[in-house]
Amino acid sequence: MAAIYSLYIINKSGGLIFYKDYGSAGRMDTNDSLRVASLWHSMHAISQQLSPIAGCSGVELLEADTFDLHCFQSLTGTKFFVVCEPGTQHMESLLKYIYELYTDFVLKNPFYEMEMPIRCELFDINLAQAVQKERVALLGR
């Protein structure tokens, strides 16, 4: 069973620009993934405003019975979030590494238009390697 179910990247205005499904059960269609991304963007924005702590950056972890959702927001407002098995550790470091891949292979790509869906082969290849390494590391724990 895969520890990581899916990965989402949402632009600063709430649009889904990347989605990758890693789970074998419960695959979502395109409309469902768009709804999840939109819902998370809204919840994240509302939580920033409702937080009693000044300077709150929003929800970073949502724990449920059947999954955990870990989120990393870059300084530009782009959100990276992964849905994984409950109790999965070290997702924050994986999300930061995925952000590094995003900056290296997407943002530095001269053919990529900001805020548009990500279609970059080098990003896909390196992302697959990063997720595979994480799965291997999780099996070893």
TrEMBL record:
Annotated source species: Cucumis melo var. makuwa (Oriental melon)
Family membership: Belongs to the TRAPP small subunits family. TRAPPC4 subfamily.
Record-linked Pfam families: Sybindin
Any single GO BP term: endoplasmic reticulum to Golgi vesicle-mediated transport
Keywords (A to Z) from UniProt: Endoplasmic reticulum, ER-Golgi transport, Golgi apparatus, Transport
Record's subunit section: Part of the multisubunit transport protein particle (TRAPP) complex.
The protein, known as: Trafficking protein particle complex subunit
CDD domains: TRAPPC4_synbindin
Compartments where found: Endoplasmic reticulum; Golgi apparatus, cis-Golgi network; Golgi apparatus
Chief place where the protein resides: endoplasmic reticulum
GO cellular component: endoplasmic reticulum; Golgi apparatus; TRAPP complex
